[in-house]
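The methods section describes the discrete structure representation at length, but only in general terms. An entry of this sort, consisting of the sequence and the corresponding backbone structure tokens, reads as follows:
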Amino acid sequence: MLVLLPPSEGKADSGRGAPLRLDSLSLPALTAAREAVLGELVELCGADEEKAREVLGLSEGLRGEVAKNAGLRTAGARPAGEIYTGVLYDALDLASLDTAAKRRAARSLLVFSGLWGAVRVTDRIPSYRCSMGLKLPGLGALAGHWRAPMAEALPEAAGNALVLDLRSAAYAAAWKPTGEIAGRSATVRVLHAPTRKVVSHFNKATKGRIVRSLLSAGVAPQGPAELVEALRDLGYTVEAEAPGRAGRPWALDVLVDEVH
């Protein structure tokens, strides 16, 4: 199973570890595209703070993020699973998983990023600010920048496995499963059962809980139908819609009353 996750906007501090090594990151087919974004981002943030703040869409209170980006090449790096924070990652709580579940997380979780394209939770990265929705002056829209290299790297990463796509729309724009891979992919919406509406907090927290449940239980569904059954066995209320034609992902709705 390959699980596609969005990053978090908020991130933990980089810490004092060894600095980033691009050639050590997973999915080496993305290295050149990563270097292009990193180079422009570092140059932009090191040259003109006000322009960088405008491009990054940062408020006055987040001015410090510009300096953080300017120092990305020398900042300490930590596993991506420690860098990403926020509602989804709090609910996932990678640090508290047992050893076997952590190994499953290292194999199956892939976090999408405007700066790195996609990384494993064990890849060592510095804290940064660069959302997929950005348009950099030189590279243009980042989602467009990533499409070609992602089209090369992601099918290999997916292999023959089920693809569980939990990304938000901005990150899904960088790579969409097609053809045979789409047929064994599933997207998930989390709906507040009483209203049947998507609510941001319910959505993010429940997606984190779903991933944690699957990792902890050690289940390995081979396709979307098996995933539906696995989630129901784990106590989730799931409504599933098989695609109307080949080459389309399954759409799963998970209904929740409340999230603790």
User: Anything to note?
Assistant: The chain has a mean pLDDT of 95. The longest helix spans residues 200-217. The chain is about 40% helix and 20% strand.
